[in-house]
Amino acid sequence: MEDDALDRDARIKLSIGTNQRDRADGVFHYPRGLAFDHHRGLLLVSDCNNHRVQVFSCDGGSFVSKFGEPGRQPGQFVRPWSLAIDHDHDRILIVDTSNHRIQSWSLSEQSFLSCIGHHGSGDLEFQCPQGIAIDKHHHRIIITDSNNDRLVFLSSIDLSFLFSIGKQGSQPGEFHCPMGVAIDDDRHRIIVSDTLNHRVQVLSSIDGSFLFEFGSLGKQSRQLNSPSGLCIANQGRIIVADYFNHRLQSFTHEGHHISSFDCGIEKPLAVAFDEHRGLIAFTAGNRVHVIGANQWLADTKFVWHPDLHRYAPSWIKQAVSTMTMIRSMVDECSAMSMIPNELLFEIFSHLEAPELEIPLDEYHVQLQRRYRRQLQQQQRQPDTATSTATSPPPCCPPKMRAKKCAMM
Q1: What is the CATH number of domain 13-299+397-403?
Q2: What angle do CA 382, 383, 386 make, to 5 degrees?
């Protein structure tokens, strides 16, 4: 059996489930969606191929309850995927992917309320929907209608159809099997993982217009291979489950790469953030892992950005250079290695540029090259993933590849 880096990573606070799929309480068969109920201290998991939702305590990961059963009647699921918690209406919204509909359940009672949608391409019709997010500012629910290559907007008041955007393609505002969606409330943005275009698109939550994109197919930092779930962390950071690259990646709200979290032989699919407890949960294989957000992002190695730091006084340049070199040599568990790069970025963001531009000297150029080489070496690992030529991406199952449906 291959060694799993997740079993050896001390940053993981708890893991739920086993490597083997099962129907027993507390274990999974391909968990696909995650949502934190921060009011109650719970983590909800859509147990996709067991056609149910399981609920766990955030404190220790103990099993609390479950609901749902396989079937096509109201209140039954066929491969549920993403879910979202709507505290304003005391409900859970669940994407019932292979039933091509959205279900609403009571959050406090965990009982079925209603469902909308059926198979098709018209209004209130879906083809293997996968992602869901709630835009509180505009009272909307956004759904990634994956096999229709579009986003569907519903009213959060009565779940009525509002409008849809997108079509299949690779141009800005076009999609190819979009999977994950999240809302950056502070910046009025919609963040979408455009899975088979291997990129993330950022749209205006006001009218859905295209703002910018980042990512391209590859294994280097800021490159992606079938990005699936994503979420928004504090400071607007975007965390992406980089499926076929076996890692999570974090980005600034402007799409600049911050850090990667290696998932070893596993492929992460869903990711969620609990801002009240500072937790990041993600699914990989048949397990759910929870890490402390600060334990991951605070351990990020410093990357030199000349465009941001070029105006810094020489003494700050020297201090950062010295700290960077020290952190490259000390043990990863030492206090020095835990100084977050966000703190350094914050220092430079408040510097005012002098009248004359101070160019980088050769020392800093060499330092930049050195760290680029180190990052490349850290990211070069044996490719344990099955290539996309022989294994379908997360939204394309082996038996339904031509239909691009949502299950595996």
Answers
A1: 2.120.10.30
A2: 155
